[in-house]
Specification:
about 525 residues; disordered N terminus; globular; mainly alpha
């Protein structure tokens, strides 16, 4: 007993310099919370500019057809490459984020988008625009979007659905960009408009500096405070101290004990959904945590992770999500790309068409915020909301050909934006809910890659349908059918989770025996 008391006293003396760190932890948590909101703000700007440019491509679509003289199918390839590379480039971006980190990757993406816009001002043919307006901005969009999305998931785990919806509500500001783009084209032509857009896109360079990685020290202090009963760690689970670490794999190798505080399925120890699991993990790792302040021997370092993790391809949940992701994005851009062109065929002006996109943008902003808030209530699984919104989106697109006047097109635009915004706000939270954040780069990268293959073929196929039928009605019917097919895969989600649980138990049983 005396020996134990002596050891305890020794430990207390060793820990004495750490005792005043309560104020330090409080200040660290406040600063970390500020960085979290900074990440959300950057993600908001990415959605404003990136998604705004993608959605206003319908206005450039008309200008390119008149200037270059190409068919609808040929000009559609420009927007198709631009939108699909945001997904097709995701595995490459995952490698870049692992190697360079999210912040340099995002800065590179902003440079690619701005450079592509500037280069497009010299375009004289559709193939040239496919490279300058399609390839370069598309890869830039991939870098910007994935870096911002993953950092948001790491920083804001507790209220991810609402934070993601708040950031993605920037997509709705296309209600400002659509008329703004049309006015610029009328005043400066499409070349001058792209020159202005290139300058605007450079604003994403300073905002990318907000993607500051979390220090590996923060989760350890938070875990110790929680074990000692400090209210600091319990106060705000939404800040990075109560979320998963946002550090790079290289930083995690230097402090491998941080991974002890990450629960299965990507939940943090301080997540209110796993209090007992958090206590068990903390109790079992108390001693290594206290010793982690000392330099670790080289033999205790964990093996470096591969730059590109292929394990998602063995997970049935990945294929369930990817099926839905693929067909939903196959249908998502077609109505926005062809809405202005359809309005022109009905005798409306290009400005009236831009107002349709503006109304859709305002509606989508409100829809995303409400969808994220509702999903965070946890009344049911997030993918149940996701499925309902997809079905309603498909039904709306099937009724789209019946809109043959400006009031009916406005009603269609409002309904489409309501359900599209609702399901798009839940894409990232649904994936995190299914697989966690530990391997989010790999899951999101591969899922986006397969969805990009479909997104690349969607608009050209819809353009071919117009060239063949001379009506845009078939394009909207095609989008509606894809949206209805999309949620079918979620019927198999419970079976997939049972299969994974059974496989995990089988893998444990030989070791336990």
């Amino acid at each position: 007993m005396q020996q134990q008391g002596g050891h305890r006293k020794e430990d207390e003396e060793l820990e004495a310099p750490e005792a005043p760190s309560a104020g330090k932890s409080r200040g660290t948590a406040a600063a970390a919370g500020g960085w979290a909101w900074g990440v959300v703000f950057h993600f908001f700007l990415v959605n404003v500019l990136v998604m705004g440019m993608l959605k206003t491509f319908g206005i450039f679509f008309v200008a390119f057809r008149e200037e270059m003289g190409g068919s609808s199918e040929q000009v559609s390839w420009i927007g198709s490459i631009m939108s699909s590379l945001r997904f097709l480039g995701a595995p490459l971006v995952a490698v870049m984020c692992r190697r360079l980190g999210e912040r340099p990757t995002s800065i590179l993406g902003a440079g690619l988008v701005a450079g592509g816009c500037l280069l497009s001002t010299q375009a004289t043919s559709v193939p040239f625009l496919c490279f300058s307006m399609g390839l370069l901005p598309g890869m830039g969009f991939a870098c910007l979007y994935q870096a911002a999305a993953v950092m948001t998931a790491k920083r804001c785990r507790a209220r991810l659905a609402f934070c993601n919806a708040l950031a993605r509500s920037g997509m709705g500001l296309t209600f400002l960009m659509a008329p703004f783009t049309q006015l610029l084209i009328e005043a400066y032509s499409w070349q001058g408009t792209l020159l202005i857009f290139g300058g605007i896109m450079l604003n994403l360079v300073p905002s990318s500096m907000l993607l500051w990685p979390v220090s590996p020290q923060v989760p350890r202090e938070s875990a110790e405070n929680q074990h000692l009963g400090s209210p600091v760690a319990k106060k705000d689970p939404e800040t990075p101290g109560g979320c998963l670490d946002g550090s790079t794999p290289r930083e995690l190798q230097e402090a491998p004990t941080t991974e002890r505080f990450v629960a299965p399925r990507g939940r943090a120890v301080s997540d209110p959904a796993n209090p007992s699991l958090g206590r068990a993990i903390l109790e079992s790792s108390e001693t290594p945590t206290r010793r982690s302040h000392k330099p670790l021997a080289a033999t205790t370092k964990e093996p470096s992770q591969p730059l590109l993790d292929f394990s998602p391809l063995k997970d049935p949940v990945f294929f369930i999500f990817t099926w839905s992701f693929l067909f939903s994005h196959l249908a998502y851009f077609v109505p926005y790309f062809h809405l202005v062109a359809r309005a022109r065929t009905l005798g409306l002006s290009s400005r009236d068409g831009s107002y349709l996109i503006a109304v859709a943008g305002m509606t989508e902003t409100l829809s995303q915020l409400f969808s994220g808030w509702l999903a965070d209530r946890d009344w049911t699984r997030k993918y149940h909301f996701h499925v309902a919104y997809l079905l309603l989106c498909g039904a709306t697109n099937l009724l789209g050909p019946l809109a043959t006047s400006l009031p009916l097109l406005l009603a269609y635009s409002v309904a489409l934006a309501t359900f599209c915004g609702a399901f798009m706000a839940l894409v990232l939270p649904v994936l995190v809910d299914l697989v966690g954040v530990e391997k989010l780069h790999s899951y999101l990268g591969f899922a986006a890659f397969f969805a990009g293959i479909a997104a690349m073929g969607g608009p050209p196929l819809a353009g071919w349908l117009y060239d063949y039928t001379q009506t845009y009605a078939c394009s909207f019917l095609f989008a509606g059918a894809c949206a209805l097919i999309s949620p079918i895969s979620f019927l198999f989600e419970p079976s997939a989770q049972k299969w994974k649980l059974k496989k995990a138990n089988l893998n444990k049983s030989p070791g336990s025996g």
